[in-house]
Amino acid sequence: MSKIIVRGGRPLTGTVRVHGAKNSVLPILAAALLAEEGSCVIHDVPALDDVTNILQVLAALGVRAQQHDTRVSLHADRLASYEAPYELVRKMRASFLVMGPLLARLGKVKISLPGGCAIGTRPIDQHLKGFEAMGAEIGFGQGSIEARVNGRLHGARIYLDVASVGATENIMMAAATAEGTTLIENAAKEPEIVDLANFLNAMGAKVRGAGTGVIRIEGVERLKGVVHTVIPDRVEAGTYMIAAAVTGGDVYVEGAIRDHLGPVVAKLEEMGASVECDENGIRVSAPRQLRAVDVKTLPYPGFPTDMQAQMMALLLRSEGTSIVTETVFENRYMHVEELAKMGADIKVDGRTAIISGSSKLVGAQVCATDLRAGAALICAGLAADGVTEVTGVHHIDRGYMDIVGKLAALGADVYRAPSPEEVLAEAAEHAVVEHVTVEHVTVRRPVAVIEVDERPLADVAMLRVHPTLA
Ligand SMILES: CC(=O)N[C@H]1[C@@H](OP(=O)(O)OP(=O)(O)OC[C@H]2O[C@@H](n3ccc(=O)[nH]c3=O)[C@H](O)[C@@H]2O)O[C@H](CO)[C@@H](O)[C@@H]1O
Ligand SMILES: C=C(OP(=O)(O)O)C(=O)O
After folding, report:
1. Which end of the chain is more exposed for a tag (fewer CB within 10 A), N or C?
2. CATH assignment at residue 10
3. What are the beta bridge partners of residue 365?
4. Does residue 470 lie within any of the structural domains?
5. Residue 166 CA to ligand 1 centre (angstroms)
6. Residue 444 has pLDDT above 80, yes or no
7. Burial, 453: exposed, middle or buried (Cβ in 10 Å; 0-12, 13-18, 19+)?
8. Domain range spanning residue 406?
């Protein structure tokens, strides 16, 4: 397992650029399944494990994709399968977003129940309710769902019991080529919904009202491929804004959009940070001591649940007591126990957490239990005395592209200690063999000692590497 090692105490300064939004790019890549002709070219696609995962799901369905840096081209004119493989879908919640497009395109879909961050039960009843209202028949069996429709899906009026982001997106995609008009009431209003609607409209769909509580989709016959640039990631931007504030630093977050970050900006200002916004980004600078504030997570445009953990790390550095209320997910306080290992004084009672500010944070060995918990632990580590070692880095890799490189460029004392497996893979790829004996192969870049058990170097992936590597 690799680790992120942070030595706290350095104020961050400089400029950091945010990547395309994870939560936009995932539904947009799924929507590319709807393009019956032409190719979709998506720009600013971040190199994230979640992106790799959804591209693998699409490949299994027959989509041909090519990736060059942050540009991805997808050809979905011929689909090969209606089954989204279990081992891929279980890794990530957003892979469930292929259900709507597959139903619309092929009239049938088989998909397993989705996995993802352990932050609550995360049912999918609202997605299914929408598809049923549009004429799909849904069956369950052994952890998977099979849905079919005779002919085309038809338009329907669908009221969501909760303003679910994923259900709004899945239904919007299914409705894009349905017969007739679909109304989604109590729709989610997140900027990522608007980005998806813009993408679908460019493909030829007729989606109106995205970003409001009522979305109207007039179904069209066919959609075609288009070129689209994904919006910047507001959660990544917010994370660097918090990282700046928690270290008493001064950071310009290039690409951050003020309108997408209203509650984060408001709370930072209430705490006493200085926030300057222009059309290209947001600059945050903060004094060492900030004021305590209360925070309640809500669907957009409320305070984002995806920023709650990072905000909590910042509140630990404020003067006074803060109350955080998590209303979106019922189990999103897993980071509290880890922060406590660093000296945090936080009491959780149901959905409420009481945070004593001015906690003296000290470095510790902690584990990222989910994506944003990982970001919060890094933020806390930047402010702590001594060294913090964060494990569970695979969660962080789902949503932050090169977080270590970006923080280091801002002056943080941070690095990633690779796992023995990663060192081995790197060694196998780049190694120049210096010396081989029966017991040891010594290689350069990086220097590694590999146990050989008399096997040839070509079998290197089978061998064990000692973790104490230079
Ligand atoms: C890939 C992506 O975009 N992920 C985001 C998306 O997740 P996701 O789309 O999964 O989140 P939802 O908006 O669907 O979930 C919000 C709430 O609705 C509940 N619910 C959801 C669907 C359903 O059918 N029934 C139901 O009860 C959930 O349990 C949760 O309590 O929005 C969340 C809320 O802003 C963010 O934290 C995630 O980062
Ligand atoms: C919870 C998150 O993602 P997902 O819905 O993909 O699990 C997140 O981005 O914080």
Report:
1. C
2. 3.65.10.10
3. 389
4. no
5. 6
6. no
7. exposed
8. 3-19+232-416
